[in-house]
Specification:
single chain; mainly alpha; globular
């Protein structure tokens, strides 16, 4: 339906255009390292809301909610949506507290170092980079699958084009360029969803007819008592919540906000917007499966678009999808640069920040190579996230509990994190995902809380003896 040449041309024009926009916007705005990596205290609630949403949603919103709906149905979508909303709520609660605790900070890693020490800091740095790398691979995989679905463009070509183009304007303009393009991209998210929903309804014979066929063909996907869907939804809820707390791009945006009131206002806006977006895109996945169109859950939404839409509208959807993936990739690349630079200076104290920025940019370029190669394999987008989510599920409670309890030591937090992660691995391998994600959270929480209580008693005993 659409030629290989057309898709490659669209890909090139879109990537080059946004690269130019990002570079031009950033000219003259980057005077210090703080401008490049944090844009501290410069962002109002409108842009902050847009950048929080665009950074999280990205092109993944076209893949993982539809894939979740296609596999688990309505209960899975609800669980996924609650996970995303609770993530924004968590940032609303702990974001201002961490800004107050580490006012000079830039990322979550600064909190880990100040609150615990070097070992917890290194663990948090490694985990956040690992998670962001997996997220980067997943985004490039997702858009590569779209191009392949449309015109059999090799996944590696799409991943390279987007990775290199986004890298150019991110390396030049830093966080400011990323947030500016996010604002544009969030507007396009809304346009994309409207186009797809109206298009599917119009070309599919009407919403009523489509839903009627879907409920007849896959009634279990609309069943609120479907235990498989409930289990999958709970798994996604925990996984999304735990892992995205380690996304340094969000913490950069927490520090970029003008004040705490701005953070709260923007995150409340995000919660109100993200839930309907998740539910609508998830329902499109159910429809794609119900109509027998989705050959693979990973591309359920695009199978629907490819089946119903004329070529012109398919091209529009593809362009919007390209823009979405760039919004997430630029956030990830800038966050990875920040981690390499700021945390590298803390770990290697003799290194100069200016030199570290050069090395960080080089490392980010190098990271694109394995990310592209892995993306070219076309692994399941959801499964790629699950690998990183498991580790995060075991670490997040010990890390953040220290914000509310002074008795938690670095040793206790480290032991709790390791025990938590290890407890879930056998069940993950056995493909029992809900247990694999619940157990690390529960285990690490128990070790953390009891360890803090014992440490408090030890302190009290020691003070009495003195």
């Amino acid at each position: 339906m659409i030629s290989y040449f057309s898709i490659m041309t669209i890909l090139t024009i879109t990537v080059v255009s946004f690269t130019i926009i990002g570079v031009l916007y950033s000219r003259g705005k980057i005077e210090t390292m703080d401008d490049f990596l944090t844009a501290r205290g410069s962002t109002g609630s409108g842009i902050l809301s847009a950048t929080f949403l665009a950074s999280f949603l990205g092109v993944f919103v076209l893949f993982t909610p539809p894939e979740a709906g296609s596999i688990g149905g309505i209960t899975t979508i609800i669980g996924y949506g609650i996970g995303v909303a609770s993530l924004y709520f968590a940032f609303l609660v702990i974001g201002p507290r961490i800004r107050t605790y580490v006012p000079e900070g830039s990322t979550l890693n600064d909190f880990a170092l100040k609150r615990y020490g070097s070992r917890m800091h290194i663990l948090t740095v490694l985990l956040s980079i690992f998670y962001m790398f997996v997220h980067l691979v997943a985004e490039l995989t997702a858009i590569g699958l779209v191009a392949y679905e449309l015109a059999e463009v090799p996944l590696i070509y799409t991943a390279l084009f987007i990775g290199i183009g986004t890298l150019i304007y991110t390396a030049y303009g830093g966080l400011r360029a990323s947030m500016f393009t996010d604002m544009i991209q969030m507007v396009l998210v809304v346009i994309l969803l409207v186009v797809v929903i109206i298009g599917v309804g119009y070309y599919g014979g009407g919403i009523g007819e489509i839903l009627g066929k879907t409920t007849v063909n896959v009634p279990h996907l609309f069943d609120f008592k479907n235990w498989g869907g409930i289990e999958y939804g709970l798994t996604l809820c925990i996984a999304v919540f735990a892992s995205n707390l380690f996304h340094q791009g969000y913490w950069q945006r927490v520090y970029a906000s003008k004040d705490d009131k701005t953070i709260r206002k923007s995150l409340i806006t995000c919660i109100l917007i993200v839930l309907p977006i998740m539910i609508l895109t998830g329902l499109l996945g159910i429809v794609s499966t119900g109509l027998g169109i989705a050959e693979s859950p990973s591309v359920a939404l695009f199978s629907l678009v490819y089946e119903f839409f004329p070529s012109a509208l398919i091209i529009v959807v593809f362009i919007l999808a390209l823009v979405l993936v760039m919004s997430t990739v630029d956030t990830l690349l800038n966050a990875i640069v920040a981690s390499f630079t700021l945390d590298g200076q803390k770990i290697f104290k003799s290194a100069k920040k200016e030199s570290l920025l050069i090395y960080a940019r080089i490392m980010t370029v190098i990271l694109i190579i394995p990310a592209t190669l892995i993306a070219s394999k076309g692994y399941s987008v959801l499964y790629l996230f699950f690998v990183a989510d498991l580790v995060c599920a075991g670490v997040f409670f010990p890390l953040f509990y220290g914000l509310f309890n002074d008795n938690l030591t670095e040793n206790i937090a480290l032991v709790a994190a390791v025990v938590g992660v290890v407890s879930g691995v056998p069940f993950f391998i056995a493909d029992k995902l809900l247990i694999a994600f619940v157990l690390p959270v529960v285990t690490s929480a128990i070790v953390t809380i009891f360890g803090s209580i014992l440490n408090k008693k030890g302190k009290s005993h020691e003070s009495c003896s003195i």
